[in-house]
């Protein structure tokens, strides 16, 4: 079958259902490999089809590649590994495969030294899990692999939710290190694929600016910002996190690093409201994605304004506010505006001192905005 696409977007790996001229979208083979052409007959790419998804085809291969060839999967994983060895040299834990950005659509692989956490979010990749496993075994030879198929994106592809140990030996707590900070992650029961490596370079920037500081880490997950501060000379750190399981990991990770963290369990805004104004030198606000789709972007901006108002209020004049958004449906300019409005509401003035983004092990495809999702800003608070 050769689907014809009306106006293919050069370099973009997704073909949406309303872009297909023929045959009818419903006739596409679920999970099958198809060759895509434009109305003139020019080759566009080969990919995986899903007639029941808004993204009807995910392009994966060129004119001389077979999307089902195990050698192609192995080559793509080797390429992904080589890139990480180049851009994050010396690190043993990082995002190994970043989906479309590594030409493996619907596949996420995080590496924790000799253990992997794998997420599959597309029907085509789900049907090729054997090729994925063979490639990972050949290129990485991991001690154990966790499969995290418990994200809502799978439901959009008509896939069941599941999670557990895929193969090999996976300890209950998997040790790893980032920027000199020691951690243990729960890869089966923790959030997403276990840890958020995308903030590694932003945390590294903060590390050299923590001496003598009091740090607040809001939406703390495993306490990465607080731990980075304490390991690098901060005098005190507080975390705010609603998950009891995550808070248990924060306490354990504090023990691993020989530091003490004040752990506050509860709703972020409620807990921040209980803290006195100006009581921290550094406040890090790193929430989950508030906008799950384009329609919720407005509500997300209101939420970003509120949490950053609460965060800015807690920074002493002359301190720093680190704030992030991982909602790719929220434009960077709108996010920055929401932060500024929140700060003004809290009676604070901001001066931006840094613009950051996702770490180099989360590559971005030019022209594919969906691969560039993390917005990170640092402000001096006046």
What does this structure look like?
The chain is of the alpha/beta class and 382 residues long. The chain folds into 3 domains: 4-61, Archaeosine Trna-guanine Transglycosylase, Chain: A, domain 4; 70-172, Transcription Regulator spoIIAA (2-Layer Sandwich), CATH 3.30.750; 196-381, Vaccinia Virus protein VP39 (Rossmann fold). The chain has helices spanning 70-87, 123-126, 129-139, 152-156, 200-207, 224-231, 244-256, 268-273, 297-314, 332-345, and strands spanning 4-5, 14-16, 20-22, 33-37, 43-49, 55-61, 93-98, 107-112, 115-120, 144-149, 162-168, 174-178, 181-185, 214-218, 236-241, 262-265, 280-285, 315-325, 350-356, 375-381. A 7-stranded mixed beta sheet has the order 16-15-14-17-18-20-19, sandwiched between helices. A 5-stranded mixed beta sheet has the order 7-8-9-10-11. Strand 17 (280-285), helix 9 and strand 18 (315-325) form a beta-alpha-beta unit. Helix 1 crosses helix 3 and helix 9 (297-314) crosses helix 10. It is globular, with a radius of gyration of 22 Å. The model has no long low-confidence stretch (mean pLDDT 94).
